[in-house]
Amino acid sequence: MAARSLFDLSGQIALITGSSQGLGLALARGLGQAGASLVLNGRCEAKLAAAAELLRSEGLRVTTAAFDVTQGGAVEQAVAKVEAEFGPISVLVNNAGIHRRAPLEEMSETQWREVIDTTLTSAFLVARHVAPRMIARRAGKIINTCSVMSEVGRPTTGNYAAAKGGLKMLTRAMATEWARHNVQINAIGPGYFATELTAPLVQNPKFNDWICARTPAARWGKPEELVGAAIFLASAASDFVNGQILYVDGGLLAAI
Ligand code: GCO
To answer: What is the pLDDT, as a whole number, of residue 3?
Structure first.
């Protein structure tokens, strides 16, 4: 296979959870530009429809699947519907995640559970219903959106760090069980990117100065800069890569 075609996603169908905005939308756009047909997911049908319309206007093949990734029954039904109506899901990006920032001693049980359910349990639930289909076909790519917070914490993000740390180990657990079926499961680990999730931080001059000093690249990442890692992990170029986290963090984790 010519080296360049290793990264061609033509013929692939990619389901990206949490893709009506932010990094999920950027990842969907990139996978679509690399040839994949896209299934966008979110809970809000209106936001999903707007995102799908935007990507279609850019010439991409897009459908939507509005379901709550924290509800197993809804996930099971949605995966069956997508495969029946759109085709076999060959790439799954578990990207859904939320923040509920608070000091641990002030954090409510709801703030804890919402973040764990949406950011970690969702990846189990969606993969639980997609993976058996990939196993039966002996082909599939699963990409979990981890974070530099899979490795390090920051005050007020204990729930999110616990979720992303768990997602790192869930990625490895999936690889140990499913690699034998020719399913590759890896993760991307974003550093600090300017999105809706981090908007309060970007708009905070003190935090902005701190993160630009803390990151060797001395800047925030641009969502489109995450796409190359996702295309690699979604393509034939990574057929013997499993259980790995590819950090796209401007060098943050390399520096004290
Ligand atoms: C924060 C940020 C981080 C980023 C990202 C870093 O509150 O420190 O929101 O959690 O969102 O996860 O990889």
So the answer is: 87
